[in-house]
Amino acid sequence: MNVTVVGCGYVGLVTGVCFASLGHKVTGVEINEERAARIRDGIAPFHEPGLAERLGSSLAEGTFKVSSQLDDAVDADVIFLCVQTPMAADGKLDTTFLADAAEELSQVLSGTGRRHALVVRSTVTPGTTEHLIAPIVRAHNPMVAVASNPEFLREGSAVSDFMEPDRVVIGLNDPWAAGVVADLYEPLDALVVHTTPSAAELAKCTSNAFLATLISFSNQIARIAEAIPGVEVEEVLSILHKDRRLSPVVDDQTISPGILSYLKPGAGFGGACLPKDLSALTHYAAAVGERAEMLEAVMEINETQPSRLVSIIEDELGQLAGQRIAVLGVAFKAETDDLRESPGLKVIDLLLEKGAGVSAYDPLVARDAVEGLTEKGVGFAPNLGDAVRDADACLIATRADEFLELPASLDAVGNERAIIVDGRRLLDPETLSGPRKYIAVGRSRKEPTESAGASSL
Ligand code: UGA
Questions:
Q1: What is the CA radius of gyration of the chain?
Q2: What's the first-to-final CA gap in the chain, in angstroms?
Q3: Mutate to test the pocket of ligand 1, among 13, 237, 259, 262 (most ligand atoms within 8 A of CB)
Q4: What is the average pLDDT score of the chain?
Q5: What angle is formed at CA 308 by the lines to CA 302 and CA 314, rounded to 5 degrees?
Q6: Residue nearest to atom 32 of ligand 1 (CA)
Q7: Range with lowest mean pLDDT among 240-249, 259-268, 367-376
Q8: Cβ proximity of 392 and 323 under 8 Å
Q9: Could you give the residue ranges of the DSSP H alpha helices within 83-169?
């Protein structure tokens, strides 16, 4: 089938290249010439495991090409809109790029005299496909069916998420187009859910709001646990995880579902999706007359989590002015080089405000990728050892495997004094040797006493 993907960012490029590797003929439209040229040369513009290989082979086989012209969409049976829907200053979604792309596309499709399915894949709030995009396009060509097909791709595993989807959601009121879009996914043998565009859009926002809620819930419990001497949040949450409704027993084997990894405390959620989608859903709720109090609380807990981490360091070191802190992990999570809404970067700003000296390191992020860091006086280290050599405290901000080596790295560079603040509960305190101080988020720093907690009863 002929497919056009408009926008070659995370979602568009992964979608286009994966469809190409399923045997479809795909054109990726990218207006940023520099990005288009790199993709044409087989260079993925961001780190995504498995993408560069598939891009290279689909370019070589001629199943994927890059264009900067929307005109190339005239031959497409299905056109995916994968342009950015960033958060506007008021916290709502900015759909300008999406509407502009639809407007431009509608000119291209006006004279084709044939049917096309136009699919909104960018994350949007309910009603966007039917009430914003469909009228723009159908005014020029009433034969265009407009659909919602939200993506559920995680950065760092986007290619495998595409190739082995939990479900493919197609929100569409037109049986012809619903069949055409479903046929595209046919080689994946996936569960396809057909629904309305608004239900598909809300399902996507709901999915991200749910993940965010689990993370803030865990951080809320961690904050309570930190106040109780001798109580470990890990133990408390692992008791929760053992509930068979969360960890079912099948054939005498306990299944540990992936979702449980979101039921752990940490530095808070970041990235281009969870914070933005949560904010968008909250504003959407208000627009339909519902206050989303719970989602507001989820956002508030998340926004204050970086300062909680800084407070932990401050409680241990006292005044932060003049102290040197190594922040390990500046991407928003491990296995990505994406810096958007990164808890690590927020922690760095808070530390700088308090007069601390900061060194930073991330295994996947290049020094010059982080704008303004050098100007702010942050030393961006080329390796873990250099980052922690002179540190008074080391803060783990992402779950990168390399940070498991932190205690050994500190030993190797002869730094005996640095405390470790584990913002992701990555290290196993049992494996730490010597007198080094280790503090993890959700771990009480108070000694257990007989009267612990009694005053609050
Ligand atoms: C998220 C969703 O997981 C995808 O299903 C969705 O398609 C995507 O947003 C999107 O809307 O495009 P992503 O932002 O890449 O994907 O990240 P996740 O891996 O879900 O991580 C989100 C946050 O949760 C991060 O801050 C991360 O540190 C945290 N996280 C992630 C955990 O706390 N535990 C985990 O096991 C994984």
A1: 24
A2: 67
A3: 262
A4: 94
A5: 160
A6: 262
A7: 367-376
A8: yes
A9: 96-109, 134-138, 158-163
